[in-house]
Automatic annotation (TrEMBL):
Key words, A-Z: Cell membrane, Membrane, Transmembrane, Transmembrane helix, Transport
Ranges of residues in domain Major facilitator superfamily (MFS) profile: 9-393
Native organism: Sinorhizobium alkalisoli
Gene Ontology CC, one term: plasma membrane
Main location per the UniProt record: membrane
Name this protein carries in UniProt: Major facilitator superfamily (MFS) profile domain-containing protein
């Protein structure tokens, strides 16, 4: 798995991802603690609304921003977007009202709407071989998971040395380090299809995505993953600090355990994909998410909650780690960026619904009913995925091939 790091371009790019993820992770932890300071027991509703605004911004802007950015140098785009994210995060320590959090979330994710699809398309261009790309996806998922574990631990360390505002300042540094690492390498040029405007390019990415059965299945499965992660990210602080009466450190640890579960499953992905098709692996992950949420109402103590978070993290990784393979396989190189943008936008629509439901249900009907609601939503996504994605892979190949003949 580590062999792909022998590629110097990918190595620098991967380190840039890690720096950026640490910055984003610290900002996320700090945002959760800030929400509790501003809203107390209603922090879940604040976080749910903030995360819903994040996803709504992503859904609305990502296909169009990514299509527009294709005309510029890829390296310049990525550097500029990382610096812009750092500039927005720098403003968070000055927040005094909940509405200000919402404004900054919209600004931050207007930038991320173009950044994340560009990053994902760049990795597939740096490593065109599917086996190498799979290893890169696993490393990327591991970096996300390690960030989930490391950022809370780093936040705990920093909180013993600096006030809450200091977390945001360190997050800014992470984005600037990422920009510097990207500036140190040459990246493959973008290769957009000629003759199409921004709107047409964005629509083409959406059309390819929605016209491919395995990607429609990916969307349904992502909905399962979104319900699990929404419960963790939105309601951990409420469950731990309001329901169980524990300290903020216990909240940070619980989120870290979710990351450990995801990381444990991600390292198994290359071997699993050598033995089973993506469909089997990802449906198994959806079963873990749905079953875990269904069992959530029975949580009575902190130890039980940690075991549940570990299981949800495992299901989450089994769904999302192979996702990039499916997207890259479904498009020619000229459409890779807009297809990743379609993936980013459509899947974030899933997170929009999940975050909003988790936040509002947790604040109005209680945690036990929230588990039940999200479990039902996850089970629906699992059922749709099992029905939509044909076991006959020839049918999948035919859809992809038909679209490529148009290029």
């Amino acid at each position: 798995m580590l062999s792909v790091l022998s590629n110097p371009t990918f190595r620098a790019f991967y380190l840039a991802q890690i720096a950026s993820l640490v910055g984003a992770g610290l900002a996320t932890v700090a945002l959760g603690l800030m929400a509790f300071e501003l809203a107390g027991s209603a922090a879940g509703a604040v976080l749910g609304t903030a995360l819903a605004l994040k996803t709504l911004t992503t859904v609305g802007l990502s296909p169009f921003v990514t299509a527009w950015l294709e005309r510029f140098s890829r390296r310049s785009v990525l550097i500029g977007l990382e610096i812009a994210r750092g500039a927005v995060i720098f403003l968070f320590p000055f927040v005094t009202e909940v509405w200000q959090v919402y404004v900054l979330i919209v600004l931050l994710h207007s930038v991320s709407a173009g950044l994340v699809p560009s990053v994902r398309a760049t990795i597939s261009d740096i490593l065109p071989d599917e086996r190498d790309y799979t290893r890169a996806l696993v490393l990327t998922q591991l970096s996300y998971d390690m960030e989930t574990v490391a950022s809370p631990l780093l936040a705990l360390l920093l909180l013993s040395l600096v006030p809450l505002d200091g977390l945001f300042i360190v997050a800014v540094a992470g984005f600037f380090v990422s920009a510097a690492l990207i500036a140190s390498v040459s990246l493959p040029a973008q290769n957009p299809a000629v003759g199409l405007g921004v709107g047409a390019r964005a629509v083409k990415g959406l059309r390819i995505y929605l016209g491919t059965p395995m990607l429609r299945c990916l969307l349904a499965l992502t909905f399962c993953a979104a319900t699990a992660s929404a419960m963790v990210l939105v309601n951990t602080v409420v469950l731990v600090q309001s329901e169980l009466g524990l300290e903020p450190k216990a909240t940070v640890l619980a989120i870290g355990v979710f990351g450990v579960g995801s990381m444990s499953a991600a390292v198994l992905i290359p071997r699993l994909l050598d033995r089973f098709p993506e469909r089997v692996v990802m449906l198994a992950g959806a079963c873990l998410c749905s079953g875990g949420l269904g069992a959530g109402a029975a949580v009575t103590g902190y130890a039980t909650m940690l075991l549940l978070w570990l299981s949800l993290g495992s299901g989450y990784a089994l769904i999302l780690t192979p996702a990039g393979r499916l997207v890259a396989r479904a498009a020619g190189r000229s459409d890779r960026s807009v297809l990743f943008a379609a993936q980013f936008a459509l899947t974030h629509a899933c997170w929009f619904i999940a975050y909003l439901t988790a936040g509002m249900a947790g604040a109005t009907v209680g945690i036990a009913f929230t588990f039940a609601i999200l479990a039902a939503m996850s089970a629906a996504g699992l059922l749709v995925a099992a029905l939509v994605w044909p076991a006959d892979h020839a049918a999948v190949a035919a859809v992809v091939s038909d679209d490529r003949r148009e290029q």
